[in-house]
């Protein structure tokens, strides 16, 4: 794929066992604004890992430390990426009510939503275009999805990255399991992370009182540079901030968020603003209640995530 430009940033994208899609000026109908680039894989099938690698070079714009800067930051300077991605494009008010509408696969492989006017397609430009179709499969034990985010020395980017993200549950399959997000930070690199996810499943349970979907065996692996050879717990000034975190680092989020992992090595994390000082590093957050409601009839049970692991090392 021809390298893309974003501000003073060069983005090189490559795919293994899948074609790379660069959805420019993508309107994110579930998670927020129109962003400059959204990368994902399509035309994937069969066993074997599917890998999307994004390499960033250059001083891309980053969200500032003040909360006002977050509000003023031009969303077109953001870069999103997800190895496997299934959603709908468009304004939130339009997209959210359609996430549970069934769809039918056409002869060209593009899924078209049933009984909608105007027509709606599971593509990143909402056209009948197989080159823009979302990822046709989700992860499995023998066919995992991996997003590698490699930020070169001295480079910077503002973005949101997922090993896997599945928003759509119209055909009853909203799982997002067996995904990995690898983040590698070169010396003096900076990532203004809007959020980092191993996997996030379609959250039907947020719309109605339905059982949701599996979000298991997902990982976020962060390898930094600023703390290499240092003991951050003894050093009052261990290193420059490498990750400016706005909404946290999540192994997974979904109905059943079990058996997920976050590992952070040699990296310095800070909150992106005064309102995000507690940046949040979460192995997994689930909506599945594991205790028996009958055994505790007078208590409000909180959602739990089982066997979610967090590892921070220096």
Topology:
Layout: E1 4-6, E2 9-16, E3 19-27, E4 34-42, E5 50-57, H1 67-72, E6 78-86, H2 92-95, E7 103-105, E8 111-113, E9 145-151, E10 156-166, E11 179-185, E12 190-200, E13 219-223, E14 243-245, E15 249-254, E16 261-265, E17 269-271, E18 281-282, E19 285-286, E20 309-313
Parallel strand pairs: 4-6, 5-9, 6-10, 9-11, 10-12, 11-13, 12-14, 12-15, 13-16, 14-17, 15-18, 15-19, 16-20
Antiparallel strand pairs: 1-2, 2-5, 3-4, 7-8
Question: What would you note in describing this structure?
Answer:
The chain is built from two helices and 20 strands. The radius of gyration is 19 Å and the shape is globular. Strands 3, 4, 6, 10, 12, 14, 15, 17, 18 and 19 form a ten-stranded mixed β-sheet that branches. The chain has an eight-stranded mixed β-sheet with strand order 1-2-5-9-11-13-16-20, with no helix packed on it. Strand 3 and strand 4 (34-42) form a beta hairpin. By secondary structure, the chain is mostly beta strands.
